[in-house]
Specification:
The complex is a heterodimer. Chain A is mainly α. The chains are: A mainly alpha, B alpha+beta.
Chain lengths: ~220, ~325
């Protein structure tokens, strides 16, 4: 029997997945693939790592579909929870690599270190870190950064978002916007400096962003 | 490597997604120099911290329009199709009597036909449900048991055992036996024994055992506004430890958390936040364990309150230290 897949509830598709139905899983991927990817990216900040996590999540669903209980929550929520956990596991695995940056020398407090580890921005630890879910208020951070991004001049924001979220190289950005590569570099740096100052103001009457001229350098 | 070079490398790295992480993990002589410099240079370490926050924020602020590469879909489905079914899933498949999709075939995105699917019912459920009423046990505090004298020492032991059983039941029933939170997560007992963390359910159990062994513990049984048993909080003044667990709280709405408050004579102080995880048996497990400030440990007559951290929140659980 063929069913209009658009109307099949997630729970029924998950049941089909539990029976080994790849087609059902493909429908679920089309429904929820993007949100799972975003959940991983928002924790890892790296598209390649996020995609590895995404694949892991769907393999987990394939293996453990029978564990999903729709009475306890949505499938998307469940998958995103798995994605965030896998992302955290990946960061912890990276943190165990030898020879990486000693946190104690860099971070003033445990919370700072935890946040950095949670973001994957620093990948070394000589101690076991607390669960990032406990120390990272992701929603608040997202809100703060969104506000800071919206305050950027549009041309700076555009190059930054193309680089970070579309993962275009600076040359590709220059080509797409029809501006010199040097301008892309300058705008990117200015944007980053503004964001840095938005989170961690530097002392002094003027910010560094104002010191940089626009245009090729 | 001097300051200028370090800062230049940091700023260059943060310009790309994940760049700072790659710089931190890079295995090269230059990276070693960078790490060595950061380890001994406060201002440069501060710069690293500041840029780490930016990088973290940019990741967290990824827009809702962010999409995975289209190729990822085919990669995922190919990996799934090539995946041998696990033993657990194989049992499900055998029971349903349907034929799995042919390995290696990847459905196209458009109008994928789906075989007849069984209606979602209790067969999807797994794990062991923990009835919250299990906690409904009259348990004396250590002080009352101790003051009762040696003939009643068994009562103290029974109290400790009861709390441990409750906590273990809540934790094992939810955390180990098929948590909706993440079926592939590291087994909690392994985490607890190998790497204790404040937020780990296994740690709560271990902390509870330590607190009960301390000989100076106090306890408050937590109840819902309806008067039903809702959990337990244990504190030890000597070791300045606190453990709290509840298996009756619903999942907090997105963006909120359960906060623990100590009410002393009408003045409330915030003790900390609880972690919440869904459990296979329905509901979820809220818990926390770890160090606590002496002022947060609670004296006789103090109230221990758990509620959402929203302005209009009402107590979800409340208990009085005796």
């Amino acid at each position: 029997m063929t069913t209009d897949v658009e109307t099949v509830p997630d729970a029924e598709l998950v049941t089909a997945v539990a029976r080994g139905d790849v087609a059902a899983l493909s429908v679920l991927y089309d429904r929820h693939g993007a949100v799972v990817h975003r959940a991983a990216f928002r924790r890892l900040g790296d598209r390649q790592l996020a995609e590895e996590v995404v694949q892991d999540v769907w393999l987990t669903l394939w293996d453990r579909a029978s564990m999903f209980d729709p009475a306890q929550g949505s499938l998307a929520g469940w998958l995103c929870t798995i994605a965030r956990n896998r992302a955290t596991d990946r960061m912890r695995a990276m943190a165990r690599r030898p020879g990486t940056l000693p946190l104690s020398a860099v971070f003033a407090t445990d919370d700072e270190a935890d946040r950095a580890l949670a973001a994957g921005n620093i990948v070394a630890s000589t101690r076991q870190v607390a669960d990032p879910e406990l120390v990272v208020d992701e929603l608040a951070l997202r809100e703060t950064m969104t506000t800071a991004l919206s305050a950027l001049p549009p041309d700076e924001r555009t190059v930054l978002e193309l680089g970070y979220y579309s993962e275009l190289s600076q040359s590709e950005i220059a080509g797409r916007l029809g501006i010199p590569l040097g301008t892309v570099k300058t705008r990117t740096r200015r944007a980053l400096l503004r964001l840095r100052d938005a989170f961690t103001p530097r002392p002094g009457p003027t910010g560094p962003a104002e010191e940089l001229p626009d245009g090729p350098r | 490597m001097d300051h200028a070079e370090v800062l230049e490398r940091i700023e260059a790295a943060v310009g790309a997604p994940g760049g700072l992480a790659r710089l931190g993990a890079e295995r090269s002589a230059t990276a070693d120099e960078l790490r060595e410099h950061l380890a001994g240079c406060g201002p440069c370490a501060a710069e690293w911290r500041a840029w780490s926050v930016v990088s973290l924020g940019l990741a967290a602020a990824a827009p809702d329009t962010l999409e995975p590469r289209p190729e990822l879909r085919d990669q995922v489905l190919a990996a799934v199709a090539a995946r041998p079914r696990s033993a657990a899933t194989g049992t499900t498949s055998a029971r349903s009597g349907t034929t799995p999709s042919r390995p290696g075939s990847v459905p196209s995105r458009a109008a994928t036909p789906v075989g007849s699917a069984a209606s979602p019912d209790g067969a999807l459920r797994s794990g062991i449900a923990l009835g919250p009423r299990r906690a409904r046990t009259s348990v004396p505090t250590s002080s009352s048991a101790t003051s009762a004298g040696p003939p009643f020492r068994w009562l103290l032991v029974a109290a400790a055992a009861t709390v441990i059983v409750f906590m273990a039941g809540a934790i094992l029933g939810g955390g180990l036996l098929g948590s909706q939170g993440d079926p592939g997560a590291t087994p909690r007992t392994a985490v607890a024994s190998a790497a204790p963390q404040r937020g780990d359910p296994g740690r709560v159990l271990a902390e509870a055992a330590l607190i009960l062994q301390s000989g100076d513990h106090r306890m408050a049984s937590l109840e819902t506004p309806e008067g039903d048993a809702g959990g337990v909080v244990l504190v030890s003044e000597g070791t300045e430890r606190l453990a709290v667990v509840s298996s009756v709280l619903p999942g907090p709405p997105e963006g909120t958390r359960y906060v623990c408050l100590l009410d002393r004579g009408g003045t409330q102080t915030q003790v900390g936040y609880m972690r919440w995880e869904p459990t296979a048996g329905g509901g979820g497990l809220a818990y926390w364990a770890g160090d606590a400030e002496p002022a947060d440990l609670g004296a006789a007559g103090d109230l221990f309150i758990v509620q959402l951290d929203t302005p209009d929140a009402q107590p979800a659980l409340i208990g009085e230290f005796s």
